[in-house]
Amino acid sequence: MGFVRNMLNWTVMRLAWLAADIFGWRAATAVFPVVLRNKVAIVTGANVGLGLETTKGLLQQGATVIMACRSMDKAKSACEDILRDPRNAGPLGNAAKRLIPMHLDLEDFATIKDFVQDFRALQLNGLHLLVNNAGAHLPFHKQVDCGFNRVIASNYFGHFWLTQLLLEDLKASAPSRIINMASVAEQLSMLALYTTKIHWDDLRGRHLPDSGERPYTISKVYILMESRELARRLEGTGVDVIAVHPGIANSTWFLKSDPRYLFAWLVDRTRALLGDWVGVGQSVETGAISTIYASIAPELTGITSSIESYGIWDSICRSLFGGRLRYYGPSYLMLRLLQNWNNTGRCYPLTPWVYNKAACKRLFEGTQELIKEVEMELAQPNKGFTRVQGTASNGMARSA
Q: Which residues are identified as catalytic?
């Protein structure tokens, strides 16, 4: 009877997630019990797009959600929008007390430490979920804090540093999870050419001539490599590391991308010709499914942190590639045939760097050393946050 019950539960949940591909994430969470009761989650870039939908989903599942946002005005406005819909409170209710906006600018590295200090000062019930969602996509080009390319800073380095600072909180609250936002960019033919070589002597991206497709693709490959190595280092701690991608989602980052880049220009021209009603990919309600699934699915507990082997193939992969990489989102075949179907499907990156154990370790340790360098630079007078071109608001695109 136990086997039959488990199979029935599995079948119902799979059907619910498939229904979500059509109707949005609420179709799946409607059949879930409240799995995040008394849990604490941090979502970066939570005020708009995929981050906003993720925040709604976690709040509905009972979590206390820290909305880590660059603009507090926009964060507070997003809070008001969330609270206006009673469905977001879920069965626990009391949503207003479980939604906390806080300031975090991943381009201004000093705010990362401030955010962590402010979070700990809240003295909440630990930290069970860190969703590294925020990011920049094709913004106006400039270097930001400590000479970083802004896309590398927002998408990769800022989140890496934030994760390192919060690791002890996550370990103390285990079982817990880290969700990293990757992208289908590493799969897309021409864009894959951007990652044939890693500039190990310039992880800040100073050599990059713009903030376009090249640094975006590089940053997402870095995230996948870091996810694998971090998963290896966290085996036995109860902290799982899961990468996700939203497929091609009609998020606000398309609208905020700088039209001087080819991809952004094509989207801009399509909208100009056919109207704003024309979507680019799936809606944010379905685009956020992979992130919400990775955050709440009970079958993923221990998926990367378990020290026990899941079989011969698992042992072989860990020996060859390092840590377990668990990566979920619309399958790449489905992206071509049935756009964005099966948002909870298992994905396998095509870029060879993600399967290079030594390279993943080198990137991770190189970024750790970079944190030390940046800390020293920020401690010097008149160093650190330097805007080379543009302003903080020019062309920003949050929520990757």
A: 216
